[in-house]
Amino acid sequence: MQVKITNKSKHDLPKYETTGSSGMDIRANLDEAISLQPMQRMLIKTGLFLEMDPSIECQIRPRSGLALKKGLTVLNTPGTVDADYRGEVGVILINLSDESVMIEDGERIAQMVFCPVQKVTLTEVEVLNDSARGAGGFGSTGIK
Fold it and tell me: Which of 15, 17, 18, 96 lies at 20 to 30 Å from 143 by C-alpha?
């Protein structure tokens, strides 16, 4: 499936880094490096603008290496870019480490994964059918 992209950044288009990659790394598009303090969050611009078929969405997800090595993650994981949004793709990063982290222009800060969207019709009812699990949640099926 084709996705239209406008690249107003100083960087190359995102790409799959390996043949088995699910996501394409996206880069920070900054005029100067940013220092993100512990527990600070910030919207980081990418310079990317998308146009997609309504049957898909773009999910913005953390990069595992950035999370492990620097404690940076995407705050609203996954972030959703809807098919009808035409603004700049931004990434809300948060620093979960105990020290400040520098984000450089061109640094790979997140990945975007394109996924199908299933539209549903909600049917309001007074009572839901029983299930084996019932209303149990948040650990009700055990921790091991």
Answer: 96
